Automatic annotation (TrEMBL):
Subcellular location: Membrane
Domain of life per record: Eukaryota
4Fe-4S listed as a keyword: no
The reaction(s) this protein catalyses: L-threonyl-[protein] + ATP = O-phospho-L-threonyl-[protein] + ADP + H(+); L-seryl-[protein] + ATP = O-phospho-L-seryl-[protein] + ADP + H(+)
UniProt keyword list: ATP-binding, Kinase, Membrane, Nucleotide-binding, Phosphoprotein, Serine/threonine-protein kinase, Transferase, Transmembrane, Transmembrane helix
Main enzyme class: transferase
Native source species: Aegilops tauschii (Tausch's goatgrass)
GO cellular component assignments: membrane
Gene Ontology molecular functions: ATP binding; protein serine/threonine kinase activity
Pfam families attached to this UniProt entry: Pkinase
Gene3D superfamilies: Transferase(Phosphotransferase) domain 1
Protein name in UniProt: non-specific serine/threonine protein kinase
Coiled coil: none
Broad class of the protein's primary localization: membrane
Length: 188
C-alpha cells in the first residue's frame, strides 16, 4: 500500500474517531479501535465499525468505570490497569493503528525476537534511544518499502505519534488540529 493511501486511511479514521468523541451527545467511547474495526470502501475511505464494546459518556463526566475489554495490543495501559475508560483510551488504540500503517507490523507478533513482540514497546524503545530529530521513520518498515516516506509527511506522523503515545495532556483541540492536518492534505 502506498504512502498517500495510508495517510488517507489515517485521516478518515481520525475523522470518525473525532466524530464519536466530539460531535456525538452523549460522547461515544469505542473501546475497541483496531485495524480490523476500520472498514475501507473501494476508494479506501475509512469507516469506524463494530460498536459492540462501546460505552456512552455524558458530557459532564471525565471517565467511565467499566470492566476492561478490548483487544490485546491495542489497550491503553492506564485503562488496562484502572478500568477507567476515557477518550484517550481510544486515542491510544488509534495510535497503535497508526503505527501499524507506518511500519507494516502487527501490534503483537510472537514470531518476533524476545523484547520486540509488542509494536508499541518496540517503538517506544526506539524513540527513547533517539532524539526526535534522529528518528528514522523508515526503520522497521517492511524490506523494500522505505521509499514510501518523504520529508513532507514526517511532521504529520510525529504529531500523531505525540498525540497517541506522548504527553498525557494532549488536548482534544490538538487532536482535532492533527486530524484536520491529515484531512486537509493536498498531496493525497
Amino acid at each position: 500500500m502506498d504512502w498517500p493511501t495510508r495517510v488517507k486511511i489515517a485521516a478518515g479514521s481520525a475523522r470518525g474517531l473525532a466524530y464519536l468523541h466530539e460531535d456525538c451527545h452523549p460522547r461515544i467511547i469505542h473501546r475497541d479501535i483496531k485495524s480490523s474495526n476500520i472498514l475501507l470502501d473501494d476508494n479506501f475511505e475509512a469507516q469506524v465499525a463494530d460498536f459492540g464494546l462501546a460505552r456512552l459518556a455524558e458530557n459532564d463526566v471525565t471517565h467511565v468505570s467499566t470492566r476492561v475489554m478490548g483487544t490485546f495490543g491495542y489497550l491503553a495501559p492506564e485503562y488496562a490497569s484502572t478500568g477507567k475508560l476515557t477518550e484517550k483510551s481510544d486515542v491510544f488504540s488509534f495510535g497503535v493503528v497508526l503505527l501499524e500503517l507506518i511500519t507494516g507490523r502487527k501490534p503483537v507478533d510472537s514470531s518476533r525476537p524476545l523484547g520486540d513482540e509488542s509494536l508499541v514497546e518496540w517503538v517506544v524503545r526506539i524513540l527513547d534511544s533517539l532524539t526526535l530529530n534522529d528518528v528514522d521513520l523508515t526503520n522497521g518498515v517492511q524490506p523494500g518499502k522505505s521509499q514510501m516516506f518523504n520529508a513532507a509527511n514526517t511532521a504529520d506522523i510525529r504529531q500523531f505519534q505525540r498525540m497517541a503515545f506522548g504527553s498525557q495532556d494532549f488536548s482534544s483541540s490538538e487532536y482535532t488540529q492533527s486530524k484536520a492536518s491529515l484531512s486537509g492534505r493536498r498531496d493525497l
